[in-house]
Amino acid sequence: NHPTLTLDGQQIIGRGDFGAGQLTLVSHAGSAIGVYGDGSVLNIETDSGGFLTEGTLNVGPGATLNLSGGPFLSLDANGYLVKGSYRVGGTLVIPGLSATAFDSAVGLTFEGDNPRIQNENGDTIQIRNNLPAGALTVANGTYTCATDAGHTFTNQGYLRAAAGGTLAITGGHFGNFDAATHTLSGGSYESAGTFKFDGADLQNLAAGT
b/e per residue, 142-172, with b = 16+ CB within 10 A? Predict the structure, then answer.
């Protein structure tokens, strides 16, 4: 077991380096860690104790939040993102993510012109499944989920494009849309902005969608 450094209701806004050594760093619900300003970088490095967030991580447009060192404990054993909430306008680096795609069961908001989530190797990782507990929002700007034959995007939770926001699913592999019947099924959707996907010819909504 590792001693624990806990953030409980506090907020950290900064840039530079934050090291937790052999501690387990825990950010509880109600706490927030954020980095803002184009070109600003906040590095949070832990050792084997790792880092768990149940609070909010905020990465402003053009900024970078780099988590490194120990394991990111908000991922479960399957590599699914299951704890915390995230607002990403710049680059969020999460160690331990698959090199291809991840599943999300959390609140995940994108903003700005180039939001991205990467692993420690610099791979930009796409969302594969928005799980039933997941809420994926584009607050402003554009977030593109690129799909291909090996990567289908499926929504089981909540998708929202806010006014001024565009959620684009490209590549033609959107698991909720049946092109033969022109039917969208599964999950829930709200669009005050733009929600688009390749081959869109939506004529029917399945019951409960």
Answer: bbbbebeeeebbbbbbbbbbbeebbbbbebe
pTM, full prediction: 0.89
Residue 182 · residue 205 · CB < 8 Å? no
pLDDT in tens, 105-153: 999 999 999 999 999 999 999 899 999 999 999 999 999 998 988 889 9
- Asked if residues 59 and 32 have their Cβ atoms less than 8 Å apart, the reply is no
CA-nearest of 166, 160, 163 to 194 is 166
Distance from CA of residue 176 to its chain's centroid?
A: 20
Interstrand relation of 177-178 and 183-184 (parallel, antiparallel or unpaired): antiparallel
**Contact assessment for residue 24 and residue 6, using Cβ atoms and an 8 Å cutoff:** no
